[in-house]
Amino acid sequence: MFSPARRGKLTAEVTAVGHSKIKRLAVFLALVFLFPVQAAAVREVVPIGHTAGIRMKSEGVLVVRLDTVQTADGERCPARDAGVREGDIIVSAGGKEVSSNAELQTALKAAQGGAVELSIKRGDETHSVQVTACTDRTGVYRLGILARDSMAGIGTLTFADPQTGVFGSLGHGICDAETGVLLPLSEGDLIYSTVETVTRGKSGAPGALQGDFSDARPIGTVTKNTVHGIFGTLSDLSLLSGQGALPVAARDEIQTGDAEIIANIDGDKVQRYSVQIVRLYPEKDEYGRGMMLRVTDKALLAQTGGILQGMSGSPVVQNGRLIGAVTHVLVDDPASGYAICIDDMLREAESVA
Asked: Is-contact 132 113, C-beta < 8 A?
């Protein structure tokens, strides 16, 4: 879940899509999003490891929760009565596309208490329902829903192609914390960020990075939100300055043993930290895991306790090759977590446009 921004400062937690049944309680990390390029042929990319502010606007309005409306005649919930469910995405109202709560409210007001046809997406299906809004005690038309149309937070950039600017980040998708639904992306952007404070992780309470960013320095656009990460194009390549490209490893080339993660946990400083790859998972792992890792770097453990929310997307390097990106921290053991294999992210980057 992204924490609300306050004067550009926010907690770097992004709830990710899917894999909610992972054994040993774990949480997705983040943040706290494409060019015609054949990513499969791109065997060298620049690992980044720097945080970035991420803002995304939804394509449609996501129904987070159904709620009752206090009317003059008692409690009502028109959305529930019409068959709307939590997790539905409202894409049009009264025949007009809606992409924000404000646009939905305008459609309800225009109907003046009459029936409104809503077009909603539910998984891979599209449904139409007729709903008649009620007025609350202040006279405002309501459907009885809590809806979301945007998210913001920080996360870690994993890699970029220095030739095209195509980037990948997070290693998991961004979804609503309450429904688990992947946010349907309309548009998104990246903003340069620095790490302001660190909340150290401990057993039962994962820590988090807190970042600072403003509109003063946009660095890219986000055009794709998938279960394997967010993707887009960097407009500012300064984060790649002085960074050499590394070859990428295929899944069958990854080994248990020594490795490193590249992370930004202090200001704008990016450093490498030692980890151990302790387990590898098959390509069709039902929870989407590529590998389990454990932090062994004494300096990182002393400062953070291990892996933090906000480090999601931190590149994992082994034997001079990029092998994956950090995605989870284990709640009961913050020194341990999971990572995605880089091949999965590169496949998604193929369709960046």
From this structure: yes
Gap between the Cα atoms of 217 and 61, Å rounded = 28
Report the run of H or E that residue 106 belongs to, with start and end: helix 101-111
Contact criterion met (CB below 8 Å) for 208 and 11: yes
Specify whether 50 is catalytic: no
Task: Pick the closest to residue 232 from 345, 322, 323 (CA basis).
Answer: 345
Q: b/e per residue, 81-120, with b = 16+ CB within 10 A?
A: ebebebbbbbbbbbeeebbbbebbbebbeebeeeebebbb
Q: Is 176 a catalytic residue?
A: no
**Catalytic-labelled residue, pool 99, 312, 314, 336:** 312
| Local confidence pLDDT in tens for the 353 residues of the chain | 233 343 333 333 333 333 433 433 344 444 433 333 333 455 799 999 999 999 999 999 999 999 999 998 899 999 999 999 999 999 999 999 998 999 999 999 999 889 999 999 998 899 999 999 999 999 999 999 998 998 898 999 999 999 999 999 999 999 888 888 888 899 999 999 999 999 999 999 999 999 888 788 999 999 999 999 999 999 999 999 888 999 999 999 999 999 999 999 999 999 999 999 999 999 989 888 999 999 999 999 999 999 999 999 999 999 999 999 999 999 999 999 999 999 999 999 988 85
Contact 338, 157 (CB under 8 A): no
Under 8 Å between Cβ of 148 and 64: yes
Tell me the C-alpha to C-alpha distance, in Å, between residue 10 and each of 34, 36, 38, 210.
26, 33, 35, 6
269-280 vs 96-97, strand pairing mode = unpaired
Residue type, 134: C
Rounded to the nearest 10°, the torsion over CA 36, 40, 41, 45 is: 90
19 is catalytic: no
Give the global pTM.
Answer: 0.83
19, 50, 88, 172: the catalytic one is 172
